[in-house]
Amino acid sequence: MISLVDLEINQTGTVVKVGGGAGLMHRLEILGIREGKKITKLSSMIMRGPIVVKVNGCQVAVGRGMAKRIMVEVD
Fold first, then answer.
1. How distant is the alpha carbon of residue 75 from its chain centre?
2. 51-55: strand order across its sheet
3. How many Å apart are CA 58 and CA 54, to the nearest integer?
């Protein structure tokens, strides 16, 4: 189990755990990121900036702080 930040580009995994408060959980739920969902990391910047992922056939950008709280099991 690794965080979304540590997932390699074009690597797919299943969301296992989302840590954080109710506000973060709600925001990610709106984006379609929840436990049990398949997620693919499409791109990220070297040091900072958002991470672009594909979930439910849509591309969404997630801030690095949020991505550190999303734990993924690599497929």
1. 14
2. 2-3, 70-74, 12-18, 38-44, 51-55, 58-62
3. 5
| Rounded (to 5) percent helix, strand, coil in the chain | 25, 40, 35
Domain interval for residue 10: 2-74
Handedness of CA 66, 67, 73, 75 (dihedral sign): positive
Query: What is d(CA 64, CA 68) in angstroms, rounded to the nearest whole number?
Result: 6
Q: What pLDDT, in 10s, does the model give residues 15-44?
A: 999 998 999 999 999 999 999 999 999 998
Domain count, the chain: 1
